[in-house]
Amino acid sequence: MNATREEIYAAVVSDVADDAAGEEDGDSPGSPGQVKRRAYQPGELVRVTIGNVAHGGHCVARDGRRVIFARHALPGEDVTVRITQVARSYARAEVVEVHKAHPGRVPPPCPAFDPGGCGGCDFLHATSDVQRELKLHVLREALERHGGLPPAAVEELTRDGVIDLGKPTGWRTRMRYRTTTVDSPGDVHGVPALRAYRSDELVDASSCVIADAAGHTQARERAADIRKSGDLLMARDSFESRVMFHPDEGPGDDQPPLRHQLSIGENLLEFETPIDGFWQVHPELIGRIVDTVLAWGDPRRGQVWWDLYAGVGPIAAALADRVGPGGRVVAVESSSVAADEARRVLQATYGHDVVTVERRDVRRWIRRAREHAAVPDGVVLDPPRTGAGKPVIEALGAIRPRQILLVACDPVALGRDTRLLADQGYRLVRIRSWDAFPQTHHLEAMAQFLPDQIS
After folding, report:
1. How far is residue 368's CA from residue 201's CA, in Å, rounded to a whole number?
2. Looking at the predicted structure, is the pLDDT value of residue 18 above 70?
3. Which of 314, 362, 381 is nearest to 341 (CA)?
4. Does residue 409 have an active-site annotation?
5. What pLDDT score was predicted for residue 116?
6. CB 73, CB 79: distance < 8 Å
7. Do 247 and 188 sit in the same domain of this protein?
8. What's the CATH number where 65 sits?
9. Which position among 59, 121, 208, 409 bears the catalytic label?
10. pLDDT value at position 41?
């Protein structure tokens, strides 16, 4: 079962304070000599000392009542926070005053980062080095608590830290802004807007620092001429950036597909996606993922590989280039648009005998493949943010591939999948993580799993 955001917060609360639920409204009835504590109220100001960062980008604090998840804080700081939401066993809050700052705190370069502002960035108030330290802490904690790995093993596996991709701003090649009518509430008409944190209210995103610079300029220019409410999409491919407007009512813009080029071996391949289709948003990331798949997986001539959740097929292309004639790559993707594009590019480049593209649900395809497919030499899994999950991993465990390479963009999901793979007899032997989403709490990671006994 995939955890909701609220379930994740509750799990963190359980990890950092086993007695948090008992403190929320005072001690349980019938406990003699114990004093009931007052619950927080939304809008209340509380001075706290900040603890470690938690999954989701918030830092954890306590003042003897509930656990507080403080946004825009850094570990060790002395701050005043404003309570924004009170749940059963925790509260959310935003920092409104810093009394003692972390040495890595910096002035945020975006005015929309203020309390109550844009929900897109989490770490604009920290140096890039500190951001990567925070992400590494969350990754390690997820592997220990959700993956069941001992701290010493986790420290050794993650000794390289979170790798800097060298583009802290202007990296996001795809954005979805909102536009408004003249009479809409707020002061965001004529500008590209984004939603405030945990709110449907809009904030001016004209100064966004993570959006691709050329594309963001186009979005600002286009938004100035729009008189309707709707979605304004910006995307950059290997050649240019473009914007497309989808009004809430009436027809939207027609746009040709985006064209993404990727060098695979001696081939320069070009994959097409819709402007709102999936391609990694950091321009450096897909190349790093492909290189790591080839370096760790070491696919060889004549081998059989599966690429599950293949998208338009960049990883499958790299595998096909290595296994060559006599080898076999099966790319499985549930999206008909992505599967059709993968089929067009891969089979034209490597041939039907080398590459098969299956437009199917991954779990169902694996269960059917058990009946007739040879045991693959390797499997690449690049599932959605929620992870591969128990049904897929159990189905793979029954087949016993000789290795599994798992790509993940959520540390907790990676931790859960790590434990599930361990239950199937697969051990984590390597992990690499990239700071592919600077200024946010997100990261990208790849992990290699080998079976305890290779059949």
Report:
1. 47
2. no
3. 314
4. yes
5. 86
6. yes
7. yes
8. 2.40.50.140
9. 409
10. 92
